[in-house]
Predict the structure.
Amino acid sequence: MKLGVLLPHTKLYGGVKRFLELGNIFIEKGHEFCVYTPDGKAPDWFAYKGRMATFEELGQEETLDALFTTTVSYVPMLLQSGARHKIFYHVRIREKLKEIMKNREIEIYACSTNVYRHNLSHFGRESFLAVGGVTVRNYQTKTNYSVPADRPFVVMGYGRLAESVKGTKYVVKACEQLYKQGYNIKLLLFDTALNEAWQKLLDSFTCQCPFEFVKNHPFDRNSELFNRADCFVSAENPRYSGWNNTVAEAMACALPVVSTKAGTADLIVDDETGIRSARWVFCFKRHIARLYHDEQLRQRLGTAARKHIGNYDWELVAQRILDHLEEDSKPNN
């Protein structure tokens, strides 16, 4: 099949990473895949194997079997493309989608059960569940959950300060308060800035507890970074997040995770594959303290997390999408 996606850019961003991962797997399975962006520029942080093209080139090419987008403003281009399957892959919950959901020419994919439930309750529309993912084999599993007395307990969080929905401030405040209470704790944040304004936010970050802010870390070495932590905490806003990439990566590294329900309905079974938390500082503080004191809990949750995340490997997501497209393309369907 000939497949493609309309993206705003190929910088390090969750929605972009989704299609670069899927594209490579589609290609490995014998299909063609093209990423269309305004400038047609390939990513410099990911070994993408497919073709790049500009939006202008889209109308000059052979009809695609399927064209995806996650960007609402690109839907008119999607409809004009002539692709046999015009797919809006819904990854951000809080978007204005009323007209899109009413248009039966557009097929709706949901990146998570969170999104699927939202589409059903708000628009009365079933979505195809294309849940995931993460390339589990690329992540090294944590094996030692002990914390020696000569080093701090390391709490890791996503440092995307420019987007308040990520909730970095909640993780920071929880760690600051625990540190003031005498906990030997260190905060580990990471992010890659997409522009100069974002970079300034990262450079000016301060915290009232020991911390390290890792900037522009190579994506293909994320496993090393996650393995430096003793737990991972995500405070994303449940009203906005469809799928939680950083939680998925932490789970692939067998880290015990504390997270809101943002994008994690498929991932976190409370007290089994992770710890579900309300989006309050005192809640994160309590959960971190529990993990701080309990090595067996850390190991139990981390081990279960690694096993569970295997259900959402990109390989499985890609095959599910291909099977769905092929089934829909059969006569009489």
